What does this fold into?
Amino acid sequence: MTFVVSDRCIMCKHTDCVEVCPVDCFYEGENMMVIDPDECIDCALCEPECPEESIIHETELDYYDKDKELWLNLNAEFARKWPNRTEMKDSMPTADEYSYYRGFENIKFKYFSPKPAN
Ligand code: SF4
Ligand code: SF4
It folds into this structure.
């Protein structure tokens, strides 16, 4: 079992999550993070750290998005393509504007970038 990062992370990327992961399984794209499902040990430490409530257990994905495979596959695919991040950095300058608390929940996927972090 694994946790996955959902689209609530897109354009925010606060990176609080990476500091607590005991196995360093977060990978950084241009505008979101993902979790490697093969490395995640299902410890749940990262879930409460995310200010956007973006980190979801795979068993909860059915409640989040009917296309549950999208998030599992996206995390697995881009964990292999993006660089590993283990230390926190500044949130994206767009974080406040795109926070899901301001109404962007479930519609941020259109902003997803497949590019790796700089
Ligand atoms: S803490 Fe949440 S919003 Fe921040 S990078 Fe991690 S998953 Fe994304
Ligand atoms: S559940 Fe644990 S192992 Fe998995 S990504 Fe979060 S902190 Fe890392």
Strands lie at 3-5, 26-28, 33-35, 55-57. The longest strand covers residues 3-5. Residues 3-84 form a domain with the Alpha-Beta Plaits fold (CATH 3.30.70.20). The chain has three helices and four strands.
